[in-house]
Each structure stands twice: as structure tokens, then as C-alpha cells.
Amino acid sequence: MIEHTSNNSFDHLNEDVRSLLDKSNEERIEYILSSRWIGYSKAIDILGKLEDLLVYPKKHRMPCMLIVGDSNSGKTMIAERFIDLHPAYEREDNEGIVIPALFIQSPPTPSESRLYSNILSKLFAPFRPSDSAEKKHHQVKTIMAACNVKMLVIDEIHSLLAGPLDKQRVFLSVIRNLSNELKIPIVGLGTKDALRAIKTDPQLDNRFKPSLLPRWEMDTDFRRLLASFERMLPLANSSNLKSKAIAQKVYFMSEGLLGEVSDILIQAAIFAIRSGLESITLELLEKIDYESPKERKKSNR
């Protein structure tokens, strides 16, 4: 628990985060490790596009969307935020549930059967993995329609490239048919490889509008992002993360990837609590056990 004094008003923290300073170190660490949403302009723009898709009038050829970015760029975070904003709920007549947006993981290879299995698992529907793809397909269409699913979000959709070309084409055809049959938009999350894969199917290429999530630049927006992070980390002392020196250090370590920024600051904040320093400094950033994406690639060779 942090001792409050007249000299420290903890203005560097959001009001609701200040109350966490009365908690134990372990409770503060637990909070730091929990996921939280930090809005920024590009993410808010993509959320707006998802909202438009969700209420799009039903028709045979529904518009779809592909959120494209490097690994750990924040794609999944945006999708999870959207799902949180549109949770499943009970129908007014108590005759089932409504699922506005269903979020699933793409199978590791382009498999029609495994895609259906992932959908059915997320819907908590009983099925046998050994069931035919045709049977699962019928079950998926029936249950998704019954639950009034208005959008299907598929994470890691670039994994469809981990298979022969003929299976990739079948998988893309399955996605297109699901959208047509259910008259719902489909949103894919993936790397630039996903964009390349979608372009192999002219019908999908016309329908899937890409929304790019680029790496951050070392600029005012990045420093503003770090300031937002600081306000949500329950440390008693100001770290001034937006200062040029610390911002440049975090940018260099993260290589401009949002997920890496988050990992760095989480590790640093926990170190700051356990060391008693209660702030993130340049010296502290040197001490945390962190490897940049480039360093991890080298060590994996």
C-alpha cells in the first residue's frame, strides 16, 4: 500500500487507477497483468467501420473487411474490444440468445471441416470432430441463424496459406459461401499474407476491403500513446513515459508494435513495484527481461 502525502496527488494517474494505490503490491500487479483498452485514432477508426458493417442491411453479397497488420500490431485487441462492446444476450422472449458478432480462431491449415468445428465449439454446440464437413456445415448455418449472428470475425486468417493451393481455394470459397448463405459480413484479421491470399479469389478481393494497421512511428502520436499507458499503470511516482528519451527507448525496443509496447510496459511496471522504485526509468528498462522481435527471430534460427 502506498502512503498518501500532501506532496503527491498522483495526477499522473486516471482517477479510478489512483484508488489501486491503496491495494497490495500483488493486487496492483494482478491489475497490470489484466487486459485493458487504450483507444487511439486508428483503432477508433476501425471500430467505426466494424460498427457500420454490423448494421449493414442484409443482402446476398455482403461487404466484408480485412484488418491487416504485422504480428502483435493490435489487430486482435481491436476485435476483442468490438466483441466486448457487443456481447451475446438473451432474447426478449427467452427463446434463446442473440450473438451480434462471433469471434473465432482460424484453423492452422485451410480446412473446411476444422473451420466449422471452431465455429461450433465457440457456439458450445455438440458435435463430433469426425462428422462430415457437410453435416457440420448444415449445423453451423442452422445454429448461427438461430442465434441471429450478424457478423463472423476470423482471427489469424493468414494461416490459410499453410496448405496447398487447392485447399486454399476451397477454404476461401467456404468463407464466401458462409457470407452469402447467412447474409452476414465476415471480418478477417491477419498479416499482409492474408491480403495476398484474398486477392487470389477475385470475388472475395472485390468484397473484402482492407483496413491497414501500420506500425507506429516515433512521433507525437506515439508519445501520446505512452502517456495513455502511464495513466493506467498504478505506480505511485510519475514515469513521464512521453518524454523524448523514454519514448525513443520504448520505440526502439518495441519496433513500433503495439503489443510489444504493452509487454514492455507491463514488465517494467511490475519491476517498478517489486523494486520499490514506483516509476519506469531508462535504467529500469535496461533491467527487464525483454527481447525485441528481431532478437527473438535471431535466437530462433
Report what the structure shows.
With 301 residues, the protein is an alpha/beta fold. It is 49% helix and 10% strand. The protein contains 14 helices and seven strands. The strands form two sheets. A five-stranded parallel β-sheet has the order 4-5-6-1-7, with helices on both faces. Helix 2 packs antiparallel against helix 12. It is globular, with a radius of gyration of 22 Å. The mean pLDDT is 92.
Task: Provide a brief overview of the structure.
This protein is of the alpha/beta class. 49% of the residues lie in helices and 10% in strands.
Helical content (DSSP H or I, runs of 4+): 40-55%
Low-confidence parts, pLDDT < 50 over ≥5 residues? none
Instruction: Quote the beta fraction.
Output: 5-15%
Look at the structure and give the CATH class of the largest domain: Alpha Beta
How many domains would you count in the coordinates?
2
Looking at CATH, which topology of the largest domain would you report?
Answer: Rossmann fold
Query: Quick one: CATH superfamily of the largest domain?
Result: P-loop containing nucleotide triphosphate hydrolases
SSE pattern, N- to C-terminal: HHHEHEEEHHEHEHHEHHHHH
> How can the largest sheet be summarized?
5 strands, parallel
| Order of strands across the main sheet | 4-5-6-1-7
Shape field: globular
CATH architecture of the largest domain: 3-Layer(aba) Sandwich
Q: Would you tell me the structural class of the helices and strands?
A: alpha/beta
Distance between the termini: 45 Å
Average pLDDT taken over every residue: 92
